[in-house]
Amino acid sequence: MASLPPIAIPGQRLGPLSTYSAGPGTHVQQSFIYASIAGPVVADPAQPKSQTRPTLRVSRVISSKDQASSNPAVPAVMSKPRYNTLPAVDSIVLARVTRVQKRQATVSILVVVDESATQSQDQSRTASDNDNVASILTSAANPENHSSTDELRFQALIRKEDVRAVEKDRVVMDEMFRVGDIVRGSVISLGDQSFYYITTARNDLGVVMARSDAGNMMFPVSWKEMRDPVTGTGEQRKVARPF
Amino acid sequence: MSSQRQASSASQVPHLSPAELSYLYTSLSLPKNPIRPDGRSPTQFRPLSAETTILPGTNGSARIGFADGTQAIVGVKAEVEKTVLAADTLDSRSLAQHGDALNREGEEGSAAVSGQGEWVQMSIEIPGFRDDDALPVFLSEMMRESLVGSVAGGDVDGAKEMAGGLKGRLVINKRWHWRLSCFSPNLSHTPSPLLSLTTHLALLSTKLPKLKSTGEEDPFFDDDWAAAEYLYPRSNTSKSSLSAAPSYPVRPPVTLLVIAVGENVIFDPNREEIAVADAVLAISPGIPNSENVNMLGATAGPGEESGGQEEVEGVWRPRRGGVKRSVIARMVKTVLGKGGVGEEVLEGLEGVEVQ
Amino acid sequence: MADRRRINGPPGGTRPPVFASLQESSTGVANRAQRQRQPTELRKIFLKTGLIPTASGSSYLEFEPSASLAAARSNPKSLIPPSSALKLACTVHGPKPLPRSAAFSPNLVLTTHVKYAPFAARKRKGHIRDASERDLGVHLETALRGAIIAERWPKSGLDITLTIIEAEDDRWWGDAPDSHDASWGMMNVLAGCITAASAAIADAHIDCLDLVSGGVAALVSDDSSQSASSAPRLMLDIDPAEHRSILSACVVAYMPARDEITELWLKGDSSRAALDKNDGRTGHEALIDGAVDAARGANTVLAEAVRESIARSFA
């Protein structure tokens, strides 16, 4: 334990496989764990029920725990956005609706929410490498700057049957999503060559941010309605349960 | 190399399943005696048929075909071109004429004696690729490099005309030179060694018209094709004694593809074998016995997953990492060592009658 | 392929005229750059990551100018610099989705572009990548592909773009090309590209087996008297402008932690190397070992640059 370096670079030997098990950011070669990315080395303590050895990983970002230990005066926001967390099955993503069709909605994935950070309940740090989530989301709800960066984002589909868990056959896509909405979804499949598949069939999944026809941000009033605070008109959405 | 490149970048070889790849790797890496899918020994080449001078409109041409129908055609065309010296050499040339300060080589215009690599052009067409895609360019650069890079050992007798290698041979006089274009209209997906062998034969059969003018005159040629001279001059040893003295003092190089799988070194791999190789090496042996190596290596890493405790995802996983130096040394030695395969191949090529 | 979109400069060199009198006064021989370093001494390398904010990873690499170039800069005798030093920038974009037309790939798809700036070499380069630049791109891809753990990034692509701002010379500018002439400068450029790209990939937090670095070694014969007895000597990290004749050279991409080579490019005649009598190695083995030593040297710089980049982002 004491021999662990604080910071690793790719190719650096971290420890034997007999003491640790390999986590993200590492690889195994000849029964030793080596770092495969540059970053701080974190040893997650073994969980008694599942593992016998602590998991060694190289972190891509500063977790809140590391942040507390390092200098608190330095803001955690890195200078540049990075989009190098890939969506995997079961990961929670925030995506913007780019197209709504009769049978499916096309979305582009903005942020892959880091599960490990979610557990720490630090909402400001839920996004992994996409540090300035707030700016991504607010700009995304603007209809003007669509599609310019969509080429750089991973595309995904929400099929009609994946929108909600009940009354699947009564789903009308137009009443669930509108172009420009921000949706929280869960990845169910890596999909085909061009699209991931996403589901919103859970109470905590669905539209989290939306603008009304008048262009104002709406607030959720029920699981299927959001309301414009200025005009007071309601619009139908598949709304995610607010935290 | 070609197929490996295509495959590794995008995905594995499209027409083999992971299980097949794994099987192929295991049988090729059997210690001492690998089992190849077509039953060849590790150093055995695929049987081929060759003919030369098949395209009447070219200065030299050749066709080589494998038994399975894969074939390559290469044509060589020579054109007279005015020598344009690059700006930097022009400077030193004119300077050398002005004063003797820069007169290093003893003669003015040394550039004109040694020739330039740009005078040899190589264009390879591969179906499904644009002619400026990376793969064809890489292949043609690789072949061109070994062509222009091969320099005759000055001590070989009869090689006087070939001083400076192929580049030197292309010089007519200070102002004129030959430009050589090799082209290969590809009919199918051709492996690069086949292409290289074909180019070798095509260049051997290439004839240039006999020069009638002398010195620095504008070149003027004999229009009798029968009097034309071979680009690669040959000594007058009788053709019947093939195994005796080599009939060509200087020969165009051949690029051989060698792969390493496990402990084994395997020659002339086919597409599938390349796909599972630990390392791929392209070697152009020069003159036999002189270890004039001109090689280009492309290596891919071993699929070694030791430790045993890591999760095993499927039967076959893509290789990663590189190769050890000892592996490369062994591969090179098998090709270039005394009595190595390189020598064998060049001897075999002697046997091809070039009219 | 002709570039029809731009008004291009003349294809040849566009250097100012140099008068013979000027050249004579400072005698051509003295003007030739001479290697001041030991045969195994490398040039210093400047390497810094994270300079380009819009890219997910980036790096800038520069070789130390040779002593003669430094001298010529402080006390110019000629308008023509005696040699040049490598300067290049690397950007990494991605992982990003593959284009819609691309087929499904379970691995990371690597794309490499190497481009010389038009002013990078003594001979002007066009705006469209020529054959040598594409060739470099393929070599670079081979070198990097072995080091990247591609299966961790399914369905995504990584674009690596290298811009050569200043390239190495293939020979001293005043020399006429001789029979051993080849694009030796390209090999130095490739080694620099490998090291810089490796730093940029680490900066982009792409999983790698190791930091792969490039190194060059060459057999050179500097003797002006054409005596046959003078055997060529093995030198690491050559500056082609400093040598009269390079017989053969070798570039490797090398991963020191695993002692593995991912790319090897050797050309020329390596049979006449002057090795010790008790040295059992053949010429090409010595060359490869030399190049590996050079790559090891570059790797120390690379590792330090990567550490610096983490220190910056995790400070």
Note the topology.
The complex is a heterotrimer of chains A (243), B (355) and C (315).
Chain A: E1 7-8, E2 13-16, E3 21-22, E4 26-29, E5 32-35, E6 39-44, E7 55-58, H1 64-69, E8 92-100, E9 104-113, H2 115-119, H3 133-140, E10 155-159, E11 182-189, E12 195-199, E13 206-209, E14 219-222, E15 225-227, E16 234-236
Parallel strand pairs in A: 3-7, 10-12
Antiparallel strand pairs in A: 1-6, 2-5, 4-5, 6-7, 8-9, 8-11, 9-10, 11-12, 11-13, 14-15, 15-16
Chain B: H1 2-10, H2 18-28, E1 48-52, E2 60-66, E3 71-82, H3 87-98, H4 110-114, E4 120-124, H5 134-149, H6 165-169, E5 176-184, H7 192-204, E6 207-208, E7 229-230, E8 256-261, E9 264-267, H8 271-275, E10 279-285, E11 293-299, H9 325-336, H10 341-350
Parallel strand pairs in B: 4-5
Antiparallel strand pairs in B: 1-2, 2-3, 3-5, 6-7, 8-9, 8-10, 10-11
Chain C: H1 20-25, H2 28-31, E1 45-49, E2 57-63, H3 67-74, E3 87-97, E4 109-116, H4 131-145, E5 156-166, H5 184-203, E6 213-221, E7 233-236, E8 245-255, E9 260-268, H6 283-313
Parallel strand pairs in C: 4-5
Antiparallel strand pairs in C: 1-2, 2-3, 3-5, 6-7, 6-8, 8-9
Helix pairs in contact in C: 4-5, 5-6
Domain Exosome complex component CSL4 C-terminal (chain A): 86-190
InterPro entries (chain A): Csl4, EXOSC1_C, Exosome_cplx_N_dom, NA-bd_OB-fold
Keywords (chain A): Cytoplasm, Exosome
Description:
The complex is a heterotrimer of chains A (243), B (355) and C (315). Chain A has 243 residues and is mainly β. Helix content of chain A is 8%, strand content 32%. In chain A, a hairpin with a 2-residue loop joins strand 14 (219-222) and strand 15. The model of chain A is unreliable at 62-83, 116-131 and 140-147 (pLDDT under 50). Helix content of chain B is 28%, strand content 19%. Chain B is built from ten helices and eleven strands. Chain B has helices at 2-10, 18-28, 87-98, 110-114, 134-149, 165-169, 192-204, 271-275, 325-336, 341-350, and strands at 48-52, 60-66, 71-82, 120-124, 176-184, 207-208, 229-230, 256-261, 264-267, 279-285, 293-299. Chain B has a five-stranded mixed β-sheet with strand order 1-2-3-5-4. Chain B has a four-stranded antiparallel β-sheet with strand order 9-8-10-11, sandwiched between helices. Residues 1-13, 86-113, 152-162, 236-247 and 287-313 of chain B have low confidence and may be disordered. Chain C has a single domain (39-314), classed as GHMP Kinase, N-terminal domain (Ribosomal Protein S5, domain 2), CATH 3.30.230. Helices cover 27% and strands 24% of the residues of chain C. Chain C has helices spanning 20-25, 28-31, 67-74, 131-145, 184-203, 283-313, and strands spanning 45-49, 57-63, 87-97, 109-116, 156-166, 213-221, 233-236, 245-255, 260-268. In chain C, strands 1-2-3-5-4 form a five-stranded mixed β-sheet. In chain C, strand 8 (245-255) and strand 9 form a beta hairpin. In chain C, helix 4 (131-145) crosses helix 5 (184-203). The model of chain C has no long low-confidence stretch (mean pLDDT 82). At the B-C interface, helix 1, helix 3, helix 4, helix 5 and helix 6 of B face helix 1, helix 4, strand 8, strand 9 and helix 6 of C. Strand 11 of chain B pairs antiparallel with strand 9 (260-268) of chain C, so a sheet runs across the interface. Chain A: Residues 7-42 form the Exosome complex component N-terminal domain. Chain A: It is found in: Nucleus, Nucleolus.
